[in-house]
Amino acid sequence: MTYERKFKIGKPILEVNNISLSFGGVKAITDTSFNVLEHEVRAIIGPNGAGKSSMLNCINGIYKPQQGTVSFRGQQIDNITPNIMAQMGLSRTFQNLALFKRMSVLDNILVGRKLHTKTNFLEVALQLPKVKKEEKLNRDRSEEIISFLEIEDIKDTPVGKLPYGLQKKVELGRALATDSTIILLDEPMAGMNVEEKRDMCRFILKVNDELGTTMVLIEHDMGVVMDISDRVVVLDYGKVIGDGTPDEIMANQKVIDAYLGVEH
Amino acid sequence: MKPVFMTYTKKDLINLAVCMVLSVLVIPTFITTEYWYTSILIPWLCLALATIGQQIVMGYTGQLALGAAGFMAAGAFAMFNLILRVPDLGFVGSLIVSGLIAAAFGILFGLPSLKVRGIYLMVATLASQFFIIWMIDKFGWFKNYDSSGIITAQDIVILGKPFTTPLAMYFVCLAVTTVLTLLAMNMARGSTGRNWMAVRDMDIAAESMGVSLLRTKVQAFAISAFYCGVAGALFAFCYLKSLEPVAFDIKLSFKILFMCILGGLGTINGAFIGAAFILLFPVLLNAIGNNVFHGAIDATIISSIEQVIFGGLMIIFMIYEPLGMAKLWENLKISIKSKLSSAGTKSLKSSAQKSE
C-alpha cells in the first residue's frame, strides 16, 4: 500500500502466548503464539479444523485454554470472560451468526451500545432525563452505523427474517456499535456472493482506515485475505505454520503444502 | 413511529388515554353490580400484574420460571405482617416493601438460572413455590399465631381514608397496576429490556457485547418477583380479603403461566389479554351451561371441558402463534384497517375509530 494511513500500525495490542486447548483427548490448538499490532488488519487462515475459531474463542474467553496466556496492551489478562474482554475494548462476530433473532436490526445494534449505557433499570423505568439523553446518543450512533452499512431500509425488521448476507452485515454493525479498539471477525464473508464480499471488504477497510480499529479476521477466500490484510497467520492442525505479510505467506512452502497437499 | 413523550408514540398515548377513560370513567358509571368488581375486575388487575412479572422473566429474559404464586404469597404475607407490626409504613409503603421482600426471594430463587436452563430451570424454580408456602405454614409468626388457618386481611386505609367498597378497591388496584405497567413498559422498551431480550435470544453474544448474564438474569428475577409480590398483596387484600397459603398453590402458578403464554410471550398488553381470557372463559362456559343447556350439563363436566379447551389452546398457540393473543389482536387491527382503507367509506371509518 502506497498511500499514507491515518492510523499508523503501532505496537502489539494483543498477544497470544503459547496457547494450548484440547477437548478431552482431541487437541484443537497446540502451543500457539502470535501477536496483533494496533491498527492493522490481521488475518488468521488455515484449512478446516485448523483451530481458527477455537483460537478466537480463546481470545474472547468463551473457551478456557489449558495452557497459555492472552495479553492486551502488554498486560496479561487472567480469568478471561467475554464480558471482561468486551469491557477492555474487544468485540467480535460469530461464525454461525449469533444475533438476537426476535429483535429488530436497530435493537440488535443498540445492544452493542451496552457498555456506553450507564443508567440502571430504575432510572430507565422512571425515564429520567439522563436516560433520555443517553438513549438519544446511543440511537444516533446506531443510526450512523446503519447508514454506514447501507441497511437503513431494514432497520425495523426482526433480524431472524433477513437473508444471511444481511445478517452478517448486522452482526458487523453490532460489533462496530461497541466502539471497540479491536474487532474479531469470524468468517465475515462466508456464504456471500462476490458483490456482497466486495461490500464487506470495503466496510472492513473503511472502518480500519477511518476509526483505526484493529481487525482480526478469519477468512477462507484467499484472494480477499491477500488483498485486505496487513499480516497473515496460518494455522494447521492447531499449530502456526506461517506468519508474515501476504507476500511472505504466498511464498511459504509449508503453507503451500498445507493447502495443496503434499506427497508423503 | 417517533416517540413524542417518554418512550411512547402518539398511538401509544391514544391507546393509553382510551384505556384510562374506559377504566376510570366508563366502567364505574355503567357497571354497578358488585359481582363484576369483586369477582372479575379486581382479580383481573391483580393477576395481570402478576403475569407482567412472569412476562419479564419468561417472555423477555427467556428464563422458564414457574413459581409466580410463591412470590405472590411472599408479598401477601409480608403485607399482612407489615401492616400488623409496622403500621407507620402506611398502605402504599407496605405495598412497596412487600414487593421488595418478594424481590429478595426472587434473587435467591433466580440464582439457579445461572447454571441450569429450560425445563431444568423450571423444576428448580418450583422450589420457590413450595419453600415459601412451607415456610409460611411452618412458622406461626408469619400468620401471627392464628390457629384458624385463614386470617382476615386488614382494611385498606390510605392517608386516613378507608378503601373498603368494591369500587374503591377497584381504584386501588387500578392505580397500582397502571403505574407498574407503565414502569414495565419503560423498562421493556429501554436499554433494560434490550439486555433481557439479548440474553433470551443469544446469551453468548450478549455476554460478548458486555451484557452481564449474572446481573441481567438476577435483575429480571428480582423485578419479576417484585411485580408478583405486589400483585399477591393486592390479590389477598382486595380480592380474597383473607390470607391463606393454600390460595397461592401451584395451580395459581400454572394459571399465571397460561396467561403469559396465551396472552403472548414478550408482550405487556398480552398479560392483560391473557389474564382476561383465563378469568372470563370459565364464566362464559358456566353461563352457556346454565342458559343454553339449563343446567343439563354437570358443573364438574363444565370445569373439565374448561381444562381440555385450555390445554388444546396452549398447544394450538405454541404451534401456530407463539406470540399469542396479543399478536392476533395486532393482526386483527391491521387487517381491519387495510379493509377499511380499501373500502374508504366514511361511515366505516368512524366505526373503526370507535373500535380502536
Can I get a quick summary?
Chain A has ten helices and ten strands. The longest helix of chain A is centred in the middle third of the chain and has 20 residues, at 129-148.
Report on the structure:
The complex is a heterodimer of chains A (about 260) and B (about 350). With about 260 residues, chain A is α/β, with parallel strands linked by helices. Chain A has helices at about 50-60, 80-90, 105-110, 120-125, 130-150, 165-175, 195-210, 220-230, 245-250, 255-260; strands spanning about 10-25, 25-35, 40-45, 65-70, 75, 90, 180-185, 215-220, 230-235, 240-245. Chain A is built from ten helices and ten strands. In chain A, helix 5 packs across helix 6 (about 165-175). The longest helix of chain A is centred in the middle third of the chain and has 20 residues, at about 130-150. The radius of gyration of chain A is 19 Å and the shape is globular. The model of chain A has no long low-confidence stretch (mean pLDDT about 90). Chain B has about 350 residues and is mostly helical. Helix content of chain B is about 75%, strand content about 5%. Chain B has 14 helices and six strands. Chain B has helices at about 10-30, 35-60, 70-85, 90-110, 120-140, 165-190, 190-200, 205-210, 215-240, 250-265, 270-290, 300-320, 325-345, 345-355, and strands at about 5, 10, 150, 155-160, 160, 240-245. In chain B, a hairpin with a 2-residue loop joins strand 1 (about 5) and strand 2.
What order do the helices and strands come in, and which of them pair?
The complex is a heterodimer of chains A (264) and B (356).
Chain A: E1 12-23, E2 26-37, E3 41-45, H1 52-60, E4 67-72, E5 75-77, H2 82-88, E6 90-92, H3 105-111, H4 121-126, H5 129-148, H6 164-177, E7 182-186, H7 194-211, E8 214-218, H8 222-228, E9 231-236, E10 239-244, H9 246-251, H10 253-260
Parallel strand pairs in A: 3-8, 3-9, 6-7, 7-8
Antiparallel strand pairs in A: 1-2, 1-4, 4-5, 9-10
Chain B: E1 3-5, E2 8-9, H1 10-30, H2 34-60, H3 68-85, H4 90-110, H5 119-138, E3 151-152, E4 157-158, E5 161-162, H6 166-189, H7 191-201, H8 203-208, H9 213-240, E6 242-243, H10 250-263, H11 269-291, H12 299-320, H13 324-343, H14 346-355
Antiparallel strand pairs in B: 1-2, 3-6, 4-5
Helix pairs in contact in B: 2-6, 2-7, 2-9, 2-10, 2-11, 3-4, 3-5, 3-9, 4-5, 4-9, 6-7, 6-9, 7-9, 10-11, 11-12, 11-13
